[in-house]
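ok, trying the design again with the full structure, not the truncated one.
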């Protein structure tokens, strides 16, 4: 799960990371009042969207008076911001963060992410932080220094010193920087983050070290133990179908292909997507209906898949383990009737009572094709979708 910058800063501040004073706002009047309240010569008005790259897209603006804050806020609120992270559709700005301006001497990069190779969180630091970090990662990856965070011992003092050196920090500034690193590492583990990034971490002209930007992503599987983080959830920033799916306990991720997939089990769902791709089709979604999928879940899953206008065919691939195949077949038939399914449907069942399940499908009045292997199922649905699209174009 993602949260906004100002929320990430609240969390990091709790762990001792210094952040500039700031006030979240949802109107131009609030932004003007926030400027006055901060009592600073310069403030920064920042668009709050669940994506980075705002600076280059005009979503971060310096202002020097309450009136200027109002004007800038008016211009940003309701605007669609397109950054390199939003995709071409962009994101509508609904919230702003007005922050005390900082006198930047240096912009550094500091982040923690889970590293699959070292099987642990890894802290990354670069002396050249700021808005071009993606470019640096591609062109000169060696400029990003990495330290593995020990799962039990945490990050150790010698590692902090190495990171400080990589950031070209010394003296009191290095001490402050190492404290930020320690806090960031602790926050990452304690809050079950998947990413914790401060870009830029700045050194001010007076030698302070501050998190000027902050981005925290959380492992959704651990949210049950972080009610405070769940309270930060902003449904405006999430995909509508994905929210709907989560209400029914379905794991749904929207993709941009044309073959809707309904599968039980995440591993099988991944394999199904791979085989669809292998056979020349493109999956429209990842959907795991769970091990104990019942008729309601199958019906809801159909509705969610079909709400996607790009879907030109559906592949159901279900293994009857906890659920028996005949129960699943009944669910699929009832659901297909209820949603008035108008696109080709291919069903592959395997597992307990598979014979009864297949017979139920074949004898039903719902137009569908059955398949006995995943290969066959994927081939069939890809062929049906191709045929339908050829018909459509003539
Ligand atoms: P992002 O582009 O979405 O990552 O947004 P950031 O919060 O990182 O801001 C982008 C850039 O705006 C930073 O790299 C800074 O150069 C600049 N910026 C942000 N806050 C301030 C500030 O208080 N003072 C000055 N001078 N520049 C700032
Ligand atoms: Mn940034």
């Amino acid at each position: 799960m993602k949260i906004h910058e100002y929320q990430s800063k609240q969390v990091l501040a709790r762990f001792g990371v210094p952040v500039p004073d700031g006030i979240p706002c949802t109107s131009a009047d609030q932004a003007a009042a926030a400027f006055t309240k901060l009592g600073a010569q310069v403030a920064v008005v920042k668009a709050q969207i669940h994506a980075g790259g705002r600076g280059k897209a005009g979503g971060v603006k310096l202002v020097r008076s309450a009136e200027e804050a109002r004007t800038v806020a008016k211009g940003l609120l309701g605007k669609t911001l397109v950054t390199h992270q939003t995709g071409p559709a962009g994101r509508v700005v609904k919230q702003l963060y007005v922050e005390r301006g900082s006198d930047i001497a240096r912009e550094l990069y500091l982040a923690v992410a889970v590293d699959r190779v070292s099987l642990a969180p890894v802290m990354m630091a670069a002396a050249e932080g700021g808005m071009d970090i993606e470019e640096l990662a591609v062109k000169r990856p060696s400029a990003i220094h990495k330290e593995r965070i020990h799962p039990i011992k945490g990050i150790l003092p010698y590692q902090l010193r190495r990171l400080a050196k990589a950031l070209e920090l010394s003296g009191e500034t290095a001490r402050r920087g190492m404290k930020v690193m320690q806090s960031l590492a602790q926050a990452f583990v304690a809050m079950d983050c998947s990413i914790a990034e401060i870009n830029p971490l700045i050194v001010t002209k007076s030698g302070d070290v501050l998190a000027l930007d902050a981005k925290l992503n959380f492992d959704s599987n651990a949210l049950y133990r972080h009610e405070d983080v769940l309270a930060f959830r902003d449904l405006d920033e999430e995909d509508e179908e994905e929210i709907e799916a989560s209400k029914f306990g379905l794991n749904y991720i929207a993709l941009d292909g044309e073959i809707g997939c309904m599968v039980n089990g995440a591993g099988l769902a991944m394999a199904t997507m791979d085989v669809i791709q292998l056979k020349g089709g493109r999956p429209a979604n990842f959907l795991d209906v769970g091990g104990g999928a019942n008729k309601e879940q199958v019906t809801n899953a159909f509705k969610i898949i079909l709400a996607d206008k790009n879907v030109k065919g559906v592949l159901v691939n279900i293994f009857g383990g906890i659920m028996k195949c005949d129960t699943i077949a009944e669910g699929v038939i009832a659901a297909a009737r209820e949603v008035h399914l108008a696109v080709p449907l291919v069903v592959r069942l395997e597992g307990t009572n598979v014979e009864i399940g297949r017979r139920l499908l074949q004898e039903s009045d719902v137009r569908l094709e059955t398949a006995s292997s995943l290969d066959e199922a994927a081939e069939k649905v890809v062929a049906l979708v191709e045929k339908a699209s050829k018909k459509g174009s003539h």
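Keeping the full-length input from now on. The first strand starts at residue 22 and ends at 25.
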